[in-house]
Amino acid sequence: EKKAAAAQVAKTPLTPNFSHFSFPELVKAFYEGGSSRYASQPLIPLAYVSAINKTLNDQGMLFLIEDVKSYVRELDPSLSFEAIRKLQTTNAAVSQTTQAGMRMLGNVLRAIGNTRSNGGTVTEEVVAMNKALLGGGNANSGGASYVTVIEAKEKGTLDGRTLALMYDDNPEAFRQIYKGMIRYVRQEVR
Known about the structure:
- There is one protein chain.
- By secondary structure, the chain is an all-alpha fold.
- The protein contains nine helices and no strands.
- It has helices at residues 2-11, 24-32, 43-56, 68-74, 78-89, 91-117, 122-134, 143-169, 171-188.
- The protein is elongated and about 80 Å long.
């Protein structure tokens, strides 16, 4: 009976410190199985998951893991492709990118028009256009979505390392988060 209790304790994952992740609420939702609430706005979560999975599957991660064989068996290299495919083929993600693209186009045209009406040079028009494309520090501009996707990928790369390092100390929590990511991409985003 004591052996069974010890085995159960060994299999019970320690609850991870979600504050170590860039998107703690999203990772917690993967862990707890409640990520379906992110399915209606999948642009950032899909970009984030794709980057995490790409990092987890990077051969450089193998140098950080003690139990390499078990770690490699846990991974699904196709998850990144599936996340990117869903970014390009699901109504919700395409709607988000289309809306952002239309805002970006409007912002670019407005920026060029304003610069020209103020007698700006071609160089000033290009600078104004680039600011409009990249958000120009304004979170309400269309470019902010583009920058946010890039940031989600960068944060996913960082958090992929954090998740990989969790594997040796807390493999059950790693599995629970990773299975939540797989469930989100394969079942919840439609």
